[in-house]
Every structure is written in C-alpha cells, then in structure tokens.
Fold:
Amino acid sequence: MARREQSFICQNCGAVYGRWQGKCDACNEWNTIAEENSAVARPQMPGRAPRKGRVFALEPLAGASHDAPRLASGIAEFDRVTGGGFVRGSVLLLGGDPGIGKSTLLIQVAAALARTGQRAVYISGEEAVAQVRLRAERLGLTSAQVELAAETSVEDIVATLGEREAPRLVIIDSIQTMWTDMVESAPGTVTQVRASAQTLIRFAKRSGAAVILVGHVTKDGQIAGPRVVEHMVDAVLSFEGEGSHQFRILRAVKNRFGPTDEIGVFEMTGGGLHEIANPSELFLSERDLGSPGTAVFAGIEGSRPLLVEIQALVAPTSLGTPRRAVVGWDQNRLSMVLAVLEAHCGVRLSGYDVYLNVAGGLRIQEPAADLAAAAALVSSLANAPLPADADYFGEISLSGAIRPVAQAAARLKEAQKLGFTRAVAPEGGGEQGLALQPVASLSSLVADIAARGTRSPRTERRAGGGE
Ligand code: TYD
Ligand code: MG
Structure:
C-alpha cells in the first residue's frame, strides 16, 4: 500500500517542511510553501528486507568511448551556445520570460533539424496542435517533417517515443505542464516537475535522444519552481531580451558539454527569429552621435567580441538620497565606480541622480566595462561628448588604477572592423593598427574629458563651474 505522506514543500527552492509556515527559511521567499502529497506510489511492504544490490562491472577511464557525436541544428547562433550542436542523450533546459520567444525558437530548431533528415518531435503541453501549426505556418516551416503532439502525461510520451526508432530531438514545451503517475501531487508543483524531469532524463540517456525542456521563469529571473531541475540537466540556456526591443539573446548558464559564456543573438521579426551574425553592428546602429553621456564599450561575450553603447545620465537630484538606477549592468559595480570617482578623482556625485543603461537590452557582466561606464558618467556630468571614433575598455581597481583585461587584441580588432580609430584602454593592450590611448589612472581620464566639457565635474573646487 502506498504510504500517505503530506509534506510542505517550498515551490521556489524545493525545501521540505513538516508543517506549513509563511516564509521559507532556505530561500527567504514568502508564501511559497504549499502542501503536497509527496508519496511515491511504490509498494512498501512493512518488515520486508531491503533489496540486495546488484553487482555491476566497473570500467577503466581509458576505455573505448563512443565520443559524444554532436548534431548541429543548422541554426548557427543556437549551435554556438550549445557548444557545437546537440550531444546524444543530453538534456537541455531552456528558460525565459513568457512571450520572449521560446516556443518560436524551438519550433525553428526542430524544423531545421527535421530538414536534415533527422527525426524531431515537438510535444506541447500548453498549446493545441492547431496553434503550433498556425505558428509554423507563419514561420514558413510547414514543409518540415516535425512530428507534433499536445500531451502532458510523461508516461504516455515516453511510451509513444519508444515505439519506433528513437527521435534525435524531443522538445517538451513546457516542463511545468508535465505530470507523471509516479507521484500524486498536482502538475506544476516541485515534486511533479522533478519527477517528470527525471523520467524524461532517463528516457534521453536510454534512447540517445536529445531532449529540450522549456522552463518558465519567475519575476526574479529564476526558472520557476524547479530550480532543482537545473542540477539534473546537462545544460541550462536562458533566452533573454527587453520586451520593447526586438533583440533576443540566448545564453548558456550551465553547460556540461561546452562553454558557458557564449551568447547567440537573434532578432524577433514578423517571420520568426532571425540570426544576427555580427551583433556589434546591430547594437551600435542606433547610436546617438555627438551627445554627452554615451561611450562605446568594446566587450567580449564568450569567444566573440561585441561592441555596445553605454549610456549615462547624471542629473541634479531633488531627493534626500539620490537615485542610482542601472539597466543591463551590475548595480554593485556602478556603486564601486561612483565611489572611486568620488574618492580618487574628486568627482562629487552625492547631489546627483545617476542612471546607467546598456543600449539594445544587452546585459553585461564583465568588469572590463568599468572604464566605459566611468567615461559615460563623467561625459554626462561635464556635458562633454566623447569622440565618436573612440571605444573604451578596462577594469577599474579600488585604488583608481586601470587594470588590463583579457583578449584586448580581439576587442581592438572588432573595433577597427567597425570603423573606430581610437581605443581608450589600459596600457599594454597590444600593438594593433588602432591607435591605443593608454590610460594609467582614472583621474587622468576624468581630467581629459573635463577639459573638453562645459561643466566641471569637480564642483567642489570650482564652484559655479564652466570655463
Ligand atoms: P512565443 O514563442 O510563443 O513565446 P514563449 O514560448 O517564450 O512564451 O513567442 C510569442 C511572442 O513572439 C509573441 O509576442 C509574438 C511574437 N512573435 C513574433 O513577433 N514573430 C513571430 O513570427 C512569432 C511566431 C511570434
Ligand atoms: Mg511558449
């Protein structure tokens, strides 16, 4: 007989409690604990001896390994992020906000693979077959031999897929809608999602099919509920973008078979997602030339250099505590750059609101953006437009010195390709054709920008400003 086991499980992090409480002690979220029946429907005979373990053979490390053959989908930006294509028997989790384009991306991937003669199956738990067809029609993919179904029972799905020769790619849209007979709690709960994912992962390993699970994302950017699933899968990809922009960025958060810092860039159009092979051009296409407060950052995303505009606005505040708002960059790094500007360069910012934005909806994680952010901030404060043909990169240390960053040569090469003739960067950046203006310290950069401005950033020394 199955034992009835009521437990209280946090729907955010999966922590288990004996009784209900308002706040989860593990992840500090409120109202996330729900009662679930986590009993596993396995007969447990009281008093029966536990099963004796089966003996299995251990294998040497150097044995003949059937190497992980990769299967490229044919969508280059997608394959770049997975590390060159799907590995046999691997499971990917694709997370992203609702409406960002996960279903669109995956039907395009499935169709591209089907066109190469591989068997691809698309299982939708959210939309009817007719809806999926309608989207495929809009994308002009109806001729691709993708097999469709609207199903939510994991047992039925595994049985159906096991009937014939295993497919090469199975898409499950989404894991939150799946349910298994193995556990009794409702679909969408942590227990169900975890058990369903486990069954599908077992299927993938056994059959050699690559499985992509779609996962919804909560407001704070976590894959909803099943953060537990992130640990079970081979790769976690996240599909990001600002609602108002048409750019979409696919990022590998975790990847057992490839790099984790690669990004793929797409554009959402009326005819689906289009690959962007040279994203720098796209991110710089709407540049506001000649206005103060913008600096071009020569960044690296994964193995690819990427130029992007950093915009800053420094405006007198009317609040007791000035605002510091940042979109697309790290709030803590902004605070650090502001502190260094105050402490070492005499730039007084306590009376100003500071806004920083990375153009195009891109999210930058590199500390190399420090110098570009500082340049944009000082440029806005001093009302001094930066030279249109200069780009910036370099890490700022707490002492106010500029530190060299990795892959300077690649950054310079990309900037040159896009018509930049000057780079403001730490010393020793390499001997490229691009004239490098080495900066040793932040204060020399501030002085340089201020000399061309109409307002002095060092308001405490030259009251009244202007020269
Ligand atoms: P969808 O793939 O359904 O998002 P998700 O599965 O992540 O929830 O994409 C929905 C959005 O994409 C919707 O707002 C409409 C837009 N879209 C286009 O702009 N062009 C297209 O060709 C398609 C299919 C969708
Ligand atoms: Mg969808």
User: Anything to note?
Assistant: Residues 96, 98-104, 135, 138-139, 268, 270-272 surround thymidine-5'-diphosphate (ligand 1) (CB under 6 Å). Confidence is low (pLDDT under 50) at residues 460-467. The longest helix spans residues 190-207.
